[in-house]
Design brief:
Order of helices and strands of chain B: EEHEHEEHEHEHEHEEEEEH
Number of helices of chain A: 13
Distance between the termini of chain B: 46 Å
Helix content of chain A: 25-40%
Order of helices and strands of chain A: HHEEHHHHHHHHEHEEHEHEEEEEEEEE
Number of strands of chain A: 15
Number of domains of chain B: 1
Number of strands of chain B: 13
Strand content of chain B: 25-35%
Largest interface: A-B, 52 and 52 residues
Helix content of chain B: 25-40%
Structural class of chain A: alpha+beta
Radius of gyration of chain A: 37 Å
Largest sheet of chain A: 7 strands, antiparallel
CATH class of chain B: Alpha Beta
Shape of chain A: elongated
Largest sheet of chain B: 9 strands, mixed
CATH architecture of chain B: 3-Layer(aba) Sandwich
Distance between the termini of chain A: 86 Å
Number of helices of chain B: 7
Oligomer: heterodimer
Strand order of the largest sheet of chain B: 7-6-8-9-5-10-11-12-13
Number of domains of chain A: 3
Radius of gyration of chain B: 20 Å
Strand order of the largest sheet of chain A: 9-15-14-13-12-11-10
Shape of chain B: globular
Chain lengths: 446, 252
């Protein structure tokens, strides 16, 4: 209500004046919309820049409350208990309900009587922009029945499609959908400490409780955390944060807590903690588990066990230390595979054809070991070489396998690889660097 | 630990009745009995029929540890171990490789026929984390086999690993240097792999497998095998020499 109008009212109690905050109003209305989901699963806000009404779809719900009138009464009663006065109307269409709630009398528009009820209402009841209403008033059109008598084609030309659209929506000639309000879910729980503490036991207890609460919320929404971030606000130091990634979404409090525990133990508390928060920034639907008719769910149970193992390992060792393997179509041996964290999102990439794999050792030295050649067979590998004080004599060899690659990376790799077997039966993987003819041991067929 | 003797029968202690505690203890004692053969456990083939014949249960018993000892570089023990591990994971179980030294080369495992999707490579930074990861992996029923190169292995850690494998039912393969062959072991099977000098008639790789120790079987038996370079199939050497009398190859 504008301030000037308040002054004009003859009231005894001094008015309570608050600044107009559209954002706060909307937030409050959204909170009420969430609360109203107790009456109907579809609750929406009216379509407006500054919505003031809530729309509830009660189709097929009347019998649950004992009739449409009973729903209206229960809604009014529930709001009254919250200290809020509301006007409620039940009608066939959203437009009619809005019109009756704002401008009509009574709260129930019996089915089929909508045109008759609307006829007597003012044109403002059609949810029209103020300019259109003003124009209609200027033309002497005040009531909906007057509007209905005017030719539709001319109305459309004069006022645009919106006026007729609203009229048709109110009359039920065109449909109108209630856009259900979904509260933005914020998977976050917080705890502020009145008395900041550095006691680990207290912090652990709080964290465990926060994770428990989050897990309950997640489970009720049928969601599981894929990533969990914990934040300890410290004063006067910077906040301490740590995160754990999960292989498989989980809403099991015990499991989440066991994952958070390992990084928490490593954390050094430098200043008293003033607030603790736990957030799941990434969530995913919980994997469904269908029960088998015959109890042989061992494979599925194994997958669950394996996911739990990966989470435990990743939590203590870091996600980079627990990896899956992806082979890459690269000739250079060091680049022929990639380790990817198992808890990270799997990227779908075609893996190279594995039908023609070349002989490769089980162990590879990241830094090839330079060896000292003593004697060499013509056009082949060294027939005798020294390495770390040992003398190796080569009995057989396979190769060379020439690998020339990497020039586009700025540094080319030109090598001749040989698989060799020593006179004692040990098998090694050697290469000759073509640039300087030096020999190296690169891998072991161990 | 609670002493069950001081309790009245069936008194609940820590959620367990005295009867249950007795049963748990009895099972643990049974685990300690050396000659007991675990008939309730499944076995997994080593991938080499002749080696399976050498083992009392005709394969590696799931839920146990196996030591593969070898000396030098490029000895071939890991090739046999990975082939056996591949067999143990044939139904899609995970093969965990604990690569603390960061020398494991996955394309080598792929060459031996192990699907890269089955591999989980864990690279722990410290000794304690490495041991812990081995313990956790062995304890997980979803894991088919765990391959580990333990740097140091004291009796206590060894025993923990054995109990973990027993709980999880996976195969634990420990690849260790030959010098530890006199040390006590909690593994069910201890094998020593020695490469044989190449022979003119043999195209593949020749290895001598010595069964140093095996629960429930006579010790110190040996077997000579050849690994085909193309197919990685393992044949007993004697079988190649005398194809008509393959059984002689497994004789001690």
């Amino acid at each position: 209500m504008p301030l000037a109008e308040v002054a004009a009212l003859d009231i005894q109690i001094p008015p309570c004046i608050e600044p107009h905050e559209p954002a706060a109003d909307r937030e409050a209305l959204e909170a009420l919309a969430g609360w109203c989901q107790r009456f109907s699963p579809t609750v929406g806000l009216e379509e407006a820049a500054e919505p003031e009404s809530l729309l509830l779809d009660i189709t097929g719900l009347a019998h649950l409350f004992g009739g449409e009138a009973a729903i209206a009464e229960q809604v009014i009663g529930a709001f009254a208990r919250r200290g809020l006065a509301v006007r409620v109307a039940v009608a066939d269409t959203v437009g009619a309900a809005w019109a009756v709630a704002h401008f009509g009398t009574g709260s129930l528009v019996p089915s089929g009587t909508t045109p008759a009820v609307l006829a007597a209402l003012p044109v403002e009841a059609l949810r029209l922009p103020p300019k259109t209403v003003e124009l209609l008033h200027g033309l002497g059109v005040y009531r909906i029945e007057q509007l209905k008598r005017l030719p539709r084609d001319e109305l459309s030309i004069r006022f645009g499609p919106r006026l007729l659209g609203r009229l048709d929506q109110a009359m039920g000639r065109t449909g109108e959908v209630i856009v259900s309000f979904r509260p933005p879910t914020d998977w976050r729980t917080e705890w502020s400490l009145d008395y900041p503490t550095t006691r680990r036991a207290t912090i652990e207890a709080i964290l465990e409780q926060l994770i428990g609460r989050l897990a309950v919320r997640l489970r009720s929404a049928d969601r599981g955390a894929v990533r969990l971030e914990c934040r300890l606000q410290c004063r006067p130091a910077d906040p301490l944060t740590f995160a754990v990634g999960l292989f498989r979404p989980s809403a099991v409090a015990g499991h989440l807590w066991s994952l958070v525990r390992a990084p928490l133990e490593r954390l050094r508390l430098v200043a008293p903690v003033t607030a603790i928060s736990v957030e799941a920034p990434i969530v995913a639907p919980l994997p469904r588990q269908q029960r088998n008719l015959f109890p042989d769910g061992s494979a599925r149970q194994h997958a669950v066990d394996l996911a739990a193992l990966i989470d435990r390992l990743g939590s203590r060792l870091g996600s980079e230390a627990v990896t899956r393997v992806r082979l890459v179509a690269e000739a250079q041996p060091e680049r022929a595979y990639r380790y990817e964290p198992l808890t990270a999102k799997r990227r779908r990439r075609a893996s190279p054809d594995q039908s023609h794999l070349l002989p490769r050792p089980l162990q590879l030295f990241w830094e090839p070991l330079a060896l000292e050649m003593v004697a060499m067979a013509p056009g082949g590998p060294p027939s005798r070489f020294h390495l770390r004080g040992h003398v190796y004599r080569i009995a057989r060899s396979w190769g060379p396998e020439r690998i020339e690659t990497g020039w586009w990376r700025g540094r080319s790799t030109d090598r001749d690889y040989y698989r060799v077997e020593t006179t004692t039966g040990h098998r090694l993987w050697l290469f000759r660097r073509l640039a300087d003819n030096r020999w190296f041991l690169h891998g072991l067929f161990s | 630990m609670t002493r069950p003797q001081s309790l009245p029968p069936d008194a609940p202690v820590g959620g367990q009745s005295a009867g249950e505690i007795h049963e748990t203890l009895r099972r643990r004692i049974a685990c300690l009995q050396e000659a007991r053969l675990r008939n309730d456990r499944k076995t997994s083939s080593s991938g080499c029929g002749a080696l399976d014949q050498l083992l009392p249960r005709r394969g590696f018993c799931r839920g146990t540890l196996t030591e593969w000892l070898a000396a030098g570089w490029g000895h071939g023990a890991e090739t046999l171990a990975f082939q056996a591990a591949g067999h143990a994971c044939r139904e899609g179980e995970a093969l965990v490789v604990l690569d603390a030294r960061r020398r494991f080369y996955p394309p080598g495992a792929a060459w031996l026929g192990i699907a890269p999707e089955q591999l989980i490579v864990v690279r722990a930074a410290g000794q304690s984390d490495h041991t812990w990861a081995a313990d956790q992996s062995l304890r997980c029923p979803g894991v088919g086999a765990v391959v580990v190169w333990p740097e140091k292995l004291d009796g206590r850690t060894f025993r923990r690993m054995q109990l973990a494998a027993e709980e999880g039912g996976s195969l634990g393969f420990l690849i260790r240097p030959q010098r530890v062959q006199r040390e006590p072991s909690w593994a069910d099977v201890r094998l020593l792999i020695e490469p044989l000098p190449p022979a003119a008639y043999a195209a593949g790789r020749r290895l001598k497998i010595r069964l140093l120790r095996c629960r429930g079987a006579a010790d110190d038996r040996c077997l000579e095998v050849e690994i085909d370079d193309e197919t990685h199939a393992v044949y007993p050497l004697a079988q190649l020499a005398h194809r008509t009398t393959p059984r002689r190859a497994t004789g001690a």
